[in-house]
Design a protein that fits this description.
alpha+beta, DNA Polymerase III, Chain A, domain 2, eight-stranded antiparallel β-sheet, 44% strand
């Protein structure tokens, strides 16, 4: 096997594979990256017992063939190179990378022991990547990273009645996005980490694949597949009612900027206070005694109905506001330790729920 390809494209594909797959594997052979040089160019694949990533890369193939190489060392070597092109070939029991004036060699792994890459499950439907990526990234960011609670590490994807709904929560924040859908009905819980990777790389048209055991997203030049999370999920609809003790309308970016600055003075919990007044929201924060900081207070112009004050974690507020960009956001706030619902007529596909925290 021998080929020449763009160092930048190869680096991106290797980095994605290393990010997606877990650092520890029960089978050492699954730590390898599978390279196949053929008539269509280079195909790079990484698999473990639950997930798989395949990337097709343009390459000038000098000799067709396949090789299995240690994944992390190969990815780190490619990333460290500075040349625009890299030439890769198998030499006896090694994979050799060459750039002008440099040569790097890595041992090959036993290709015969690799399980190969399964074909993705049947196609459920298609969406435009640009339309899917932004709301999916916002929703996936609301997933928990606590593997002890697998239900909250996933995004529920549900296609039904002309709508694709994406939902994720870590119990303290909830993100819901709806997009038009003309594919098959389905309902799956997909690891959020996998979907986050897709939002970085997918272009053109994205194909959604699924069956009772697996889910995959494919696009021109790539496909990511994963086993499903076999757990139940909450009924998000009960958190999306529009009841409110106070309603605020203001520019999402203006509030996010104030929260970001006040957050520099927040206590150890990252708490900021939103104090709703007449025609304004005052964002306040006070550092714990001895923390080396003082207090912050900033006013943001707003349309306000009802007056109350709530403490929130600044990270949750910023995560919620990020999805609305420069749009006007409407916050429906409930008094006490009850939820706040964020929405926008300018971003109708997205709704975000955050829970307050006890003030000090």
């Amino acid at each position: 096997m021998e080929f020449t390809t763009s160092r930048t494209e190869l680096d991106a594909a290797c980095s994605a594979a290393v990010r997606l797959l877990p650092a520890r594997r029960s089978d050492p052979v699954l730590s390898g990256l599978l390279l196949h040089a053929g008539p269509a160019g280079l195909r790079l694949a990484a698999v473990d017992n639950e997930r798989a990533l395949v990337n097709d890369i343009e390459a000038m193939v000098h000799t067709e063939g396949s090789a299995l190489v240690p994944g992390k060392p190969f990815a780190e070597t490619v990333h460290a190179l500075e040349a625009g092109q890299v030439r890769v070939r198998v030499e006896q029991q090694a994979l050799v990378l060459r750039t002008p004036g440099a040569r790097f060699s890595l041992p090959l792994m036993n290709l015969g022991l690799h399980p190969g890459v399964r074909e993705p499950p049947p196609v459920l439907g298609e969406l435009d990547a640009a339309r899917l990526a932004e709301p999916l990234a916002v929703v996936a960011a609301a997933c928990s990273t606590d593997l002890a609670l697998p239900m909250f590490t996933g995004v529920r994807l549900r296609g039904r009645a002309g709508t694709l709904r994406m939902t994720a929560t870590d119990r303290y924040q909830l993100a819901v996005a709806d997009l038009p859908w003309d594919g098959k009905d389905f309902d799956v819980l997909v690891p959020g980490k996998v979907l986050g990777e897709v939002t970085r790389r997918a272009t053109g048209t994205v194909r959604l694949h699924g069956d009772e055991d697996r889910f995959a997203l494919g696009w021109s030049g790539g496909v990511v597949s994963t086993a499903l999370l076999a757990t139940p999920f909450i009924d998000e609809q009960r958190y999306l009612d529009e009841a409110a003790d106070a309603v605020v309308e203001l520019e999402a970016e203006a509030l996010a900027g104030a929260v970001r600055r006040a957050g520099l003075f927040a206590d150890g919990r990252g708490a900021v206070l939103l104090d709703l007044g007449e025609d304004e929201v005052r964002v306040r924060a006070t550092a714990e005694e001895g923390a080396g900081f003082g207090t912050a207070s900033e006013t943001v112009k707003a349309s306000v109905t009802g007056q109350l004050a709530q403490h929130f974690r600044s990270a949750y507020l910023l995560g919620a506001l990020r999805g609305f960009g420069s749009a006007t956001v409407r916050m429906r706030v409930l008094d006490g330790m009850r939820r706040t619902l964020l929405s926008s007529p300018d971003v109708p596909e997205l709704r975000y729920v955050i829970m307050p925290i006890v003030g000090r």
